[in-house]
């Protein structure tokens, strides 16, 4: 028996919203019933509002990666040329997906932790069919100004489509589609919506909807769109999660601005606490989704992880080339500002215990 | 307030096993932790045992359709020739998937409700790279003898791969891979495993594992296999469901033979009750997964559905060409033999109330 309570501080999955747990403890619902259709429509409408789009949001049973692949598959054809700045594990995923689907990928490799600059768009020579951007790069904790990037890209390549990974920015940072020049975006249930993993979200602006080229079978977004207009889905959906998402959105959306301010303040507080004990932040520009620090000099990740674990906290290390070099903590899940104070103290204790 | 309790009698999703609800009400787990890896391995081992295979079972976050598409994608190349007997909505799905992936589909269309006969294999002229069969065709309630079909097909085309939809036979009817000449099979969490929808299962015999051609990104089974060997997954998994599946399998597998006998007895009882009030069964050979009857003469599906609904029961109608012609009820979910007696009485009451 520990004197500490368990805290899940990973950048997804996250601590569940009580409305999610409530929905998940209900008896099984059949997806082709009026009750299920009402949940489906509520989740779709809520996500549309969260994304500030007049287009629509499709709920796919799968991970955020499925939603990313489905967007590339249905919005681009093999041989089309896309720009993909790579500065972490998730921006690299865009490049891998586009390559696997036969697109011509023009990669811009940056040091992991850095952000993409509008000047990098100015340097490009066309033509381009699209750009695949990453809003919050959870592997480094960096946040790109995708609004400026999208607008700069569109001013140079007006016919191109800009698609953004908003997996860890939806309901964490302000986001928008049309108003920002972003045509489509992806996210998933286990991040800002504070539900278990299992749903990917594919958001499409009216412009992206017009340009949809139905392709694939399970990932065919035109087929999904038709089914989801009726509150159903092309394939058996993770309907329990859909109900959970609807429940959480019903709580979060009425106070969204305050919620986003909370996420920003929590992350600021965690960075301040880490810096106060000598830690060095990884990102050039900080995302409110994940706090990323380089490991304190002379310590291995396993030691840092263990120091948190002794205090009941689950954190995560680096991915790809940052493996063994950084650690990451997140309060994307259900938490308030006082939880941030708690975690800040816990982090300081954990690090000071290492000496 | 109704005097009836709610009963979900659809052929998936189904009434949840209490071990599933128990797992789903726990706080969120991170998938890259020892606890999560233990659930992942337990679910994989349990499914391997359920499928009687020395190969392996991959858990995919998505529906059973995703697992079906992933199998076709990773086991066949475009242009390869496959035999697909079509006798319902789900066998037709195999044909659609194979066509969408560029395979040459040799279709054998049967009346919906009929089963595939070994003679139909004898009539084929090769070459064939594979056959896509359906064990339990839930849209008609028919069960194919996929064992005899696979063995007949293999005796004629020894190099071909036989892939079976076992979505509603796994843990409902006896199933096997190698011993039956079946190389790969698909199922999903919301059927015999009595969990919510959201996981597809892809079972691969040792022979199929040798023939795996890694393709796709989200559906790349070679990548999944590598990750799942370590108790993880290539993409963020629906880990809550994985834990639920592990919990249910731990309860069901030790008494599997008795469980399968129960499913057979339940269905027999429901057919007997329906026939006693003059209903005509749809399938030529009955699957224990779903009881399918033609609508009583002179009544519309909405009336039958309403008669069940008034007694708290959710049933489902026909799909595709059987829409408006049949109704289906299932006890695949958590239920015992006395529940079958209860549902039999409910069905008789519902139908007699129609006059």
Automatic annotation (TrEMBL), chains A, B:
Annotated source species:
Allomeiothermus silvanus (strain ATCC 700542 / DSM 9946 / NBRC 106475 / NCIMB 13440 / VI-R2) (Thermus silvanus)
Instruction: Please list the cofactors this protein needs.
Output: pyridoxal 5'-phosphate
Summarize where substrate binds, as residue positions: 328
User: What's the protein name?
Assistant: Aminotransferase class V
Give UniProt keywords alphabetically: Aminotransferase, Pyridoxal phosphate, Transferase
N6-(pyridoxal phosphate)lysine sites (modified residues): 191
Q: Which GO terms describe its biological process?
A: glycine biosynthetic process, by transamination of glyoxylate
Q: Tell me where in this chain the Aminotransferase class V domain is found.
A: 28-319
Q: Which family does it belong to?
A: Belongs to the class-V pyridoxal-phosphate-dependent aminotransferase family.
The record's annotation in Gene3D superfamilies points to: Aspartate Aminotransferase, domain 1, Type I PLP-dependent aspartate aminotransferase-like (Major domain)
Q: Please give the superkingdom of this protein's source.
A: Bacteria
Provide the coiled-coil residue spans. none
- Read off the InterPro entries from this record: Aminotrans_V_dom, Aminotrans_V_PyrdxlP_BS, PyrdxlP-dep_Trfase, PyrdxlP-dep_Trfase_major, PyrdxlP-dep_Trfase_small, SP_NH2Trfase/AEP_transaminase
Identify a single GO molecular function assigned to this protein.
L-serine-pyruvate transaminase activity
